Amino acid sequence: MKGWALTFVLAAVFALCVGPFYWLAMAATHANSEIFAETPKFYPGDQLGANTAKLEESIGLVHVLGNTLFVAIVQTSIAIVVALLAGYAFAKFEFRGRNAFFVLLLSTLVIPGGVTIIPIFEMMNDLDLIDSFPALILPNLTVPFGIFLMRQSLLAIPDELLDAARVDGAGELRVLWRVVVPVMRPVLAALGVFLFLGAWNDFLWPLIALRTPEMYTLPVALATLQGLARTDFGQVMVGTAISSLPMMVLFLVLQKQFISGLLAGATKG
Fold it and tell me: Which residues span the domain enclosing 7?
């Protein structure tokens, strides 16, 4: 009896999680007039190609996807390197003020992101970077949570292991690349998924920093489809489905490393 109850609960949770995505996928294949019809459409329609073509015509879907992918990959890659180097320094090097700097870093986690938007905009404007990819990437290269996660995970690596590599003549960068990175791969993968998700879905800062449609990322471009009098929800559903797809694929590919990294970050240190 208990087994059936658990199965029912899990099935209900699964339906609640997957149901909206299923409806989104089905809605993307219907015309705008059919999406919010009195009788919901839970079966595939024949308008997927037409909706996709209209979306390409409206926002330049391929170009916008390229912008978003470029920003997300570059931002995530550099942010992971910065977090790894900073976490390595906090975990394995003794220097004056280390604890104070780390506490100061952690204190930034409680500052709402909206508070920093105006100062960051002023900085980007003074550097003449508004309406450019660097304006999107540079403010997000230092992620306090990522540095904290790297530091906590690196504390679990024995200093003797690193010292043995140094005795063999390896420099710090070689020790980092040959010894630390292989051990940290699950944590790096978990952090990479978090950072890529944040960069891919970022809306507010690109909305403020970008001015020309040629520079838009996908969330900003999709927001332009919202009209004052009429909105083509067929296009919106296709764009939203396409926006969700890369993250699903990324998680499915890296789910083993992602879960291992979360467990490592939660138990080490």
Answer: 1-46
